[in-house]
Specification:
The protein is α/β, with parallel strands linked by helices. It is 30% helix and 24% strand.
């Protein structure tokens, strides 16, 4: 069922964190042939500005844990009341176990808390997670759900790959949903164009093509000098642009028709912050007034993948009060997710900075740790 609605579910709070280290596009002029005019042209068209990136000691779980702790403290939540934890991301710390299980332990949640991941959808995943959380609570299967969405997208490509790396930043977010006696109806429209599954893909690293010695030294360059490894992301930019500008306006029209609302009824359209050009094009084709959408989040934080739409919501709600938000996302798969959700009285403390704690392991120390862990044997 691509369209669905749920009642008696409220979003109590939402928050986001980004790493403290950032890259300003002005400091990367070397990647634009040291040509100020070329750099300014890209800034104007794409909206490039700053993006916050994790160091090698910081993982996606670290960012999402920080966001969750901020939200739990901010809302003064009884952690034992959280009975579902959903993690949405393509930057999972490990192939397994699920990052949700790791975070349940770190956050010291109840063992009666159901934990699982949603992965592989990237930029549309948050709306899918929101849809699933509404479904669980509306059905009575859950009373209080902690939805975590995070990404360290800056690590998905080589910094020398200017087709993609200059777009991406990192963030971790937390959203709390719970049952309410209020009606509070939320609407969703989701879908998939799986025939184009290879338009955004990381070929190596899964079980189809594990990372082994035969590929670790392979480094390819395209005609523009962009550097790529088999475990890096490939993004067919023109195809993805055509997909988003096709699905985006249609999705907004379909979700509004489903809800019976007009554009004027929506306070803010929260877009996946892919880049300025994509957001602007989709908004134009959808006929949205400029005051109801923004690309500021992309210019301030970059494309944060799964967490992108959440950072846009946190930035907007920290500045203005809104009730009805239309969420518009499109991502890997190729997939999409749209929603009209009531954000009245949702609490947020905006977007905060994450400082890597002292004592966090670097890459060399992690390798040593796991070798020693293995050698200790089965019963250690």
């Amino acid at each position: 069922m691509p369209k669905s609605k749920f009642s008696h579910v409220k979003i109590s709070g939402i928050t986001a964190v980004v790493p403290e280290h950032f890259i300003n596009i002005d400091d990367e002029i070397e990647f634009f042939n040291n040509d100020p005019k070329l750099l300014e042209r890209n800034k104007k068209i794409l909206g490039l500005g700053t993006r916050y990136v994790a160091d090698e000691r910081t993982t996606n779980c670290d960012l999402c844990e920080a966001a969750a702790r901020d939200l739990i403290e901010f809302l003064n939540i009884d952690k034992d009341s959280i009975d579902t934890l959903i993690m949405v991301s393509t930057s999972l710390d490990y192939k397994y176990p699920a990052s949700a299980c790791i975070l349940q332990g770190r956050l010291n949640l109840s063992e009666d808390c159901t934990c699982f991941d949603i992965t592989g959808l990237a930029c549309s995943a948050y709306v899918h997670g929101l849809w699933l959380a509404h479904s669980l609570i509306s059905s009575g299967a859950s009373k209080k759900c902690l939805l975590l969405a995070g990404e360290i997208s800056s690590t998905h490509s080589d910094r020398r790959n200017r087709n993609s790396n200059m777009l991406f930043g990192d963030a971790g977010t937390a959203t709390l949903l719970e049952w309410t006696a209020e009606e509070k109806t939320a609407y969703f429209y989701t879908g998939t164009r799986g025939k184009d599954w290879d338009k955004i893909i990381a070929p190596a690293g899964g079980w189809a093509l594990p990372i082994q010695k035969d590929i670790i030294d392979i480094e390819e360059k395209d005609q523009s000098g962009n550097v790529w490894h088999l475990w890096d992301e490939i993004m067919k930019g023109i195809d993805v642009f055509k997909f988003t500008t096709d699905v985006g306006p249609k999705g907004i029209e379909k979700i509004l028709n489903y809800t019976g609302k007009e554009i004027s009824d929506i306070d803010y359209f929260a877009f996946h912050q892919a880049n300025k050009q994509i957001v602007k094009t989709v908004a134009m084709y959808a006929g949205l007034p400029k005051e109801k959408w923004s690309t500021d989040t992309f210019s301030l934080y970059g494309n944060c993948g799964t967490a992108s739409i959440v950072t846009d919501i946190c930035r907007e709600l920290s500045e203005k009060k809104h009730q009805y938000l239309c969420l518009a996302s499109f991502g890997v798969g190729l997939s999409w997710g749209f929603g009209v959700v009531d954000f009245k009285d949702v609490k947020t403390n905006g977007i905060s900075k994450y400082k890597t704690p002292e004592g966090k392991l670097n890459r060399e120390e992690k390798i040593k740790y796991w070798i020693e862990y293995f050698k200790r044997g089965q019963n250690a």
